[in-house]
Amino acid sequence: MKRVTGIGGIFFQARDPAVLRAWYQRHLGIEVQPWGGAAFTWTDTDGQPFAGTTVWSVNAAGSEALAPGSAPFVINYRVHDLHALLAALREEGCQVLERSEDSEYGKFGWVIDPEGNKVELWQPPQGQ
């Protein structure tokens, strides 16, 4: 079974998200959207759009979005079959969160790694 197939997003906390977002926009050219992050469209070697994006987002320090992890960041990993992977992780004794989510953006599930970091697993919708 395929497990992780790529990185879907990086989410982290900041003491002052607005200031940090503005810094990244001004100095690194990241086009921060009103929702607080950016979506980088994948391209092929010729610069043509390719199926997929990677999301980058800044959250307020202490935000519940990263709970129950202990780190100020969450990495979202793309997976091929979320439900099969979550079942395999449970069988392997991993701390899989009971809650999962199915939305127009795909299927989401979470596991806590041995260091207490929340790891987000994402199965993109068909065609992405």
From TrEMBL:
SUPFAM superfamilies: Glyoxalase/Bleomycin resistance protein/Dihydroxybiphenyl dioxygenase. It comes from the Bacteria. Pfam families: Glyoxalase_6. Residues 10-121 form the Glyoxalase-like domain. This is VOC family protein. It comes from Stenotrophomonas capsici.
